[in-house]
Amino acid sequence: MGHDEEHERFDREIEAMGVRIKDADALKVRADVFDEVTLIALYKLVHKKLISVIGGPISTGKEANVFYGEHDGRGIAIKIYRIRTANFKAMTDYLAGDRRFASVRGSRKGIVFAWTKKEYSNLARAHDAGIPVPEPLAFDRNILLMEFLGRGEVPYPQLRNAEVADYGVVYRQILGYIERLYQDARLVHADLSEYNILYHEKPYLIDMGQAVTLDHPRAGAFLIRDIRNINRYFSRYCDVQDEQEIARAITGGQDRER
Asked: Global pTM?
């Protein structure tokens, strides 16, 4: 079966389930993204009436593709982890030190499913702690549904591309998020940078699949790395605080791995 026939079959199957496909051209990557496993997960989510519209890609990457979607008129982000190209080794390393997922072994598929569940769980913890993150809505296999952060169908820009009126204020807000994440959600983001923060009137943290609990053996090192990344970015625009002092204030002075 050729690509076009494959795409048409996909469209027919999805539309037969009552999902409207917006912007069919933008879904051209689907042969690559929507393998058998992903289609099953998509069907499950559609059957639960959690997706009513699938639109074009918001972002495409090695690890995951994110599509715009709608559920009852509300914008959602449909994040699909790519089983074939996901960074299996890195995922395994992050999962291994996490008590919640330490028992996960085995196949590439199993690891990616665990990772999807982990991002859902991390977002839920952060959201419950009042940190601006996309609210997680549901997950199935390698698909995560969450609130869409944007206007219309346009996502909020990454911090590095955003117009920021007062960098000092935003810098302090982000340090506040890191602290609340640590103290209230008991998590370290572990990949924080100007790429994983969206900005619209305030910063939002995204991409939390790799976030770790505080009992992870590298939690302290990841915390320092997050602070260092934020300091590196903001030092071009405003005064930044000493990274060790920030870390001490956040951890309550516990002498964690540097």
From this structure: 0.89
